[in-house]
Write a structure and sequence with these properties.
By secondary structure, the protein is mainly alpha-helical. The chain contains 13 helices and four strands. The strands form two sheets. It has a two-stranded antiparallel ribbon. Strands 3-4 form a two-stranded antiparallel sheet. The termini are far apart. The structure holds a DNA duplex (21 and 21 nucleotides).
Length: 327
DNA sequence: AAAAGTTGCAACCGCCTAGCC
DNA sequence: AGGCTAGGCGGTTGCAACTTT
């Protein structure tokens, strides 16, 4: 944490007035009141109109990570931990994508949680289970990786974080990548207000608000205990409404770009089917053993059985997955 | 009780992309 | 096409709080 401070830049009158560091309760009140009354617009306007001597970016961050009314706060539940582990094994360090599937949680919160609690736990597990007990052999993602992704911790190797390992009999890596992306694209995604309309429509009702997305079928899922998502419940509320799926594909250098070949106009039944297959493959299996995270992590270390061959078989029967253009 | 070490997490930084002109 | 700006993201930092010695 940082002490509240005034920016030290002297070459700009504006910058020299901008505060940095911790937010005071008064600042929080100003931002909260402004957001509740006026809604989100341009963040630099928000900062100015709310009477805050902060940059827009700082206001945005404060709102998203701390002030948003739908934030859950508090410790992560075992179910949430489990889900984070699963999602991380699929998505890597795409914290925003992971957060989008955890209602009331922010990417920053999940990132911090991962880097402190889960990494530490895995490190301990790894040192306990490795033959030589050497800590230097610790590779977080590799330990976790039920899908067999190879990992690296270097910034430049983030691409590799998401590359599946293939044996000699596997189809081409690009085909697998396509399949993986189609899987990722179909993981349930929660839009908990990070992308609010400028009109302020976000505040039309109390509590969490899931917005619909234009251009995508609005069906979504309703998840029940023991349903599509197995026994994974999110928080005390239990059941979740999950809005339509959103593509995860990205062109950022930090992430592997895998072109989705999916047709977004796909018949809903395909979404239902593919989600059943995917979620049954990558989540339900893992929730069968409910005797605690230790077991879960141990399982991750020893099984790694996310059967891509089986998945290929399942997935390839869906016409919206067109592999014909894969090189 | 005090110093040293560790942890948790809020906030910043730098990079990237999209949109606008 | 190129420059500028805002928003978004992941990585990193810094420090209060907590724990250990």
């Amino acid at each position: 944490m940082r002490k509240p401070e005034v920016s030290g830049k002297n070459n700009s009158n504006i910058n020299s007035k901008l505060r940095k560091g911790l937010w005071s309760p008064e600042e929080d009140d100003k931002l909260m009141n402004y957001m509740l009354n006026s809604g989100q617009g341009c963040w630099s306007d928000v900062a100015r109109n709310a009477g805050l001597q902060r940059c827009g970016k700082s206001c945005r961050l404060r709102w998203i990570n701390y002030l948003r009314p739908d934030l859950k706060r508090g410790a992560f539940s075992p179910q949430e931990e489990e889900l984070i582990v699963h999602l991380h094994s699929l998505l890597g360090n795409r914290w925003s994508q992971i957060a989008a599937r955890l209602p009331g949680r922010t990417d920053n919160e999940i990132k911090n949680f991962w880097n402190s609690t889960i990494k530490k736990r895995l490190k301990n597990l790894s040192s306990n289970t490795s033959p030589n007990g050497s800590e230097s052999s610790y590779e977080p993602n590799k330990d976790l990786n039920m899908a067999g992704f190879t990992t690296s911790n270097t910034h430049q190797d983030q691409h590799a974080d998401f590359m599946p390992m293939f044996n000699s009999s596997s189809p081409s890596p690009s085909m697998h990548a396509t399949v993986l992306n189609s899987i990722i694209d179909r993981l349930p995604l929660l839009d908990h207000g990070l992308n609010m309309p400028a009109s302020g429509g976000y505040f039309n009702g109390p509590g969490p608000c899931f917005s619909s997305q234009s251009g995508v079928d609005n069906k979504g899922f309703y998840l029940e205990s023991g349903g599509v998502f197995g026994s994974v419940n999110i928080g005390a509320e239990g059941d979740m409404y999950v809005p339509p799926l959103e593509s995860v594909s990205t062109t950022s250098d930090h992430n592997l770009k895998v072109e989705s070949t999916c047709n977004t106009d796909t018949n809903n039944s395909y979404f239902d089917d593919i989600n059943s297959i995917i979620l049954n493959n990558c989540i339900n299996k893992r929730t069968e053993n409910r005797s605690g995270l230790e077991n879960l992590f141990q399982e991750e270390l020893t099984m790694g059985e996310w059967d891509l061959e089986e998945l290929m078989k399942d997935v390839s029967s869906f016409p919206f997955l067109d592999f014909s253009n894969i090189q």
